[in-house]
DNA sequence: GTCTATAGTCTGATAGAC
DNA sequence: GTCTATCAGACTATAGAC
């Protein structure tokens, strides 16, 4: 019997079945993410997901208890990635610049096709998400971080005085999900870089001279 | 036989039945408008509308061939009212001011609860609307008028130079439907006037100092 | 395969316009 | 009094979660 290499853990290796199971779960999440971005929540049928992954519909329910739970898992993964992107920004940069950078990051993610049409597409999904502890925790953590940036930007004197902090935060979220991006992309008259630049500028500096 | 007064038309007066029919049609449109604004397209069942109006479901189909046709009629009425509001603005005002005024008008309409969650809520509805000649004509007429205002604002030198006209128009539509309004309204921290003022200002002048 | 939801249809009964 | 529009609601068909 050959000795295990140092790379292999002492505890019994995950069984092949187990590894397959986890790979399939990632594949399901990826497919769902793609379909959510493409069609939105309600139009996306569980059959679509099964077909995309290439597994039986019933198998989906071995991984996720319901369509809502599956969508929630996708959204939680997205919030985590967003939070990581925010953490990766240089801490010494002015708060306003970091907010700009986050908006730009999000818009580029969307242009690359990776971001599901926001919960706003479906009241059912929104309610399910707000009932999901893990999702709400992630969302609150992200909102805390963004809220800190807003307050910091204000004390830096970077914001116009009469906007409520609450307003600035909602404004940021709404610009991150702005449908203008999809229309411009579909219109095809502007490059991705132009779309991102104009949207970021409009969000922070307005469109008037 | 008494002579008809001058106020009465020669042709036979509309029968009572006919008048009832038309009143009911308005009631159906009003109820649908309200329900669309409250729940969105798919969650709104025809039974809901019938119940809201207080008529039998079958009677709905005496007025509108389908759920899609009914929703389209509501949206067309909304576009007409919007165009009338635009026509009512003083023609001598600068184009940029008229755009601001239109955005303010729309946001106030939404705060008053009268505007259906945009077509974006449902791909089905969006497709049905785009296949509806009357709707598309109204939408194009409105877009023409707004596009004219944008071009005029640009030649007035009111817009920042590097925004595409196309971008400015989409930006305007997106701000008119901005979910920020609903969040702020639900939050309750700001008055309606504050919400409108901050949103209009953010849309045109940005949030940075 | 089962079950639920809902668009859309149909029918017999009935109120009320004519 | 006659007749027609409307009513209540059963029913069909379909889609989609599970």
Primary descriptors:
homodimer; mainly alpha; Tetracycline Repressor, domain 2; globular; DNA-binding
What does this 3D model show about the protein?
- Chains A, B: Keywords: DNA-binding, Transcription, Transcription regulation.
- Chains A, B: Residues 45-64 bind DNA.
- Chains A, B: GO terms for molecular function: DNA-binding transcription factor activity; transcription cis-regulatory region binding.
- The structure is a homodimer of 209-residue chains.
- The first copy, chain A, has 209 residues and is an all-alpha fold.
- In chain A, 68% of the residues lie in helices and 0% in strands.
- The first copy, chain A, has helices at residues 16-39, 46-53, 57-63, 67-87, 95-111, 123-130, 133-155, 165-176, 180-187, 192-205.
- At the A-B interface, α8, α9 and α10 of A face α8, α9 and α10 of B.
Instruction: Tell me the greatest interface.
Output: A-B, 44 and 45 residues
SSE string of chain A: HHHHHHHHHH
Let me know the average pLDDT of chain A: 89
Strand content range of chain A: under 5%
Write the SSE topology.
Two copies of one chain form a homodimer.
Chain A: H1 16-39, H2 46-53, H3 57-63, H4 67-87, H5 95-111, H6 123-130, H7 133-155, H8 165-176, H9 180-187, H10 192-205
Helix pairs in contact in A: 1-2, 1-4, 2-3, 4-7, 5-7, 5-10, 7-8, 9-10
The structure holds a DNA duplex (18 and 18 nucleotides).
Quick summary of this structure?
Chain A is 68% helix and 0% strand.
């Amino acid at each position: 019997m050959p000795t295990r290499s140092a790379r292999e853990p002492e505890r019994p290796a995950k069984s092949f079945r187990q590894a397959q199971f986890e790979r399939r779960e990632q594949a399901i999440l990826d497919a769902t993410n793609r379909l959510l971005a493409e069609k939105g929540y309600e139009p996306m049928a569980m059959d679509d997901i099964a077909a995309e992954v290439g597994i039986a519909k019933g198998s989906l329910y071995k991984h996720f208890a319901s369509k809502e739970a599956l969508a929630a898992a996708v959204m939680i993964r997205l919030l985590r990635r967003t939070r990581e992107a925010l953490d990766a920004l240089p801490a010494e940069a002015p708060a306003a610049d970091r907010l700009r950078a986050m908006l730009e990051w999000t818009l580029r993610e969307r242009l690359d096709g990776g971001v599901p049409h926001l919960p706003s597409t479906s009241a059912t999904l929104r309610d399910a998400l707000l009932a999901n502890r893990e999702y709400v925790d992630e969302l609150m953590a992200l909102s805390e971080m963004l809220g800190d940036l807003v307050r910091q930007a204000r004390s830096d004197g970077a914001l116009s005085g009469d906007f409520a902090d609450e307003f600035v935060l909602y404004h940021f979220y709404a610009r991150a999900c702005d449908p203008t991006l999809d229309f411009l992309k579909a219109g095809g008259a502007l490059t991705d870089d132009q779309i991102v630049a104009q949207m970021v500028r409009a969000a922070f500096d307005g469109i008037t001279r």
